[in-house]
Amino acid sequence: MLGAIIGDMAGSIYEFDNIKTTDFELLSKDCEFTDDSVLSVAVADWLLSDKENLSHKVLEEKLLAYAKKYKYPMGGYGGGFLNWAFSPERLYDYGSKSANGRKPYNSWGNGSAMRCSAVGWMFDTLEDTERAAEISANITHNHPEGVKGAQATAAAIFMARTGKTKDEITDYIEEKYGYDLQRTCDDIRPTYDFEGSCQKTVPEAIIAFLDSTDFESAIRLAVSLGGDSDTLTCITGGIAEAFYKSIPTDLAEKALDKLPDEFKSILEQLRKNSNYIQTY
């Protein structure tokens, strides 16, 4: 999951100032974790606390706890999530309310995919991985595209960590989720602009991984596409870490130095209580 956090940090300073090159300083002093990392850690904490039940109640508690503690991360939270967390009465009722009055808001935004990297590490089967990804999305992003984005991301991580080839990952994601992965970063980069949807972020993030040769090149390619850089690169980083099983030590150390102790504690618990391997 550190790979996803590194991706988030690497893209953080380019979210609203895209660059279209792979030639840039990785994890400069201005790079910080954003809401992508905060909510990724929240989902990991949920899985560590409630893997057997996967209840919405515990997931809601974790998302709220982290959002309240880290209320102003770099870049801020999306408007829908802000209302869900802090002003749930403003949301139109697209689904059953929780005991606390919160309800999903039918989002197809890429927030469901950005936060689910831990799901790809916690289960022994692809079926269980996709089921947990669906639950993790549904609490807010219950639009079919929001669910699909989370499932495709978690599935790609599961397949990458369990030894599937890039061709096998491509074939499965295209067939199951209908994403067009028959493009390259060079095809995408010239016209790709800011995009907050799963359907126009997740495929591009996967393609950045598919075009890469190692973890660092995956991060550089993802940032170079532009768009919602922190989220896109967060998704790419999670898959790349699982596939290459190696993160350059200097990048890992820079990222860890920027993280709160409780984030590092969750990473350590994830390593001890799941299929997650230390890749740095």
Question: Can you describe this structure in just a few lines?
Answer:
This protein is mainly α and 280 residues long.
Structural class: mainly alpha
Q: What general outline do the C-alpha atoms trace?
A: globular
* End-to-end C-alpha gap: 11 Å
Give the fraction of residues assigned to helices: 55-70%
Q: What count of helical segments does DSSP give?
A: 14
Sequence of secondary-structure elements: HHHHHHHHHHHHHH
Describe this structure in words.
The protein is mostly helical and 280 residues long. The protein has 14 helices and no strands. It starts with a helix and ends in a 7-residue tail after the last helix.
Descriptive terms for the model:
mainly alpha, 280 residues, 0% strand, 57% helix, single chain, globular, 14 helices
Q: Topology of this protein?
A:
Blueprint: H1 2-12, H2 35-50, H3 56-69, H4 79-86, H5 111-114, H6 126-138, H7 144-161, H8 166-177, H9 185-188, H10 202-211, H11 215-225, H12 229-244, H13 249-257, H14 261-273
Helix pairs in contact: 1-11, 1-12, 1-13, 2-3, 2-14, 6-7, 7-8, 7-12, 10-11, 10-12, 11-12
